[in-house]
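Reviewer 2 asked us to include a model.

Predict the structure of this chain.
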Amino acid sequence: MREKAEAVAATGASIVASANPGCSTQLAAGLRSLGADPEVRHPIELLDLAYQRASSADDASSPVQPSPAP
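Predicted model (structure tokens):
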């Protein structure tokens, strides 16, 4: 696992995607032991974050704001 953590740390990435919870846990621990601190996230978490940011950007660029519900 150390080789994998070293390879990931060498990329300089701030976020790493891993779909396997066990691998994510080991990778995060390996990165911490190297003093690296990229976030280890599940791909679905990254999609959720991207959708949230896109939605926020759409709301901010909309010239007409929706009226509040009664």
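The longest strand covers residues 15-17. The chain has a mean pLDDT of 88. We have added this to the supplementary material.
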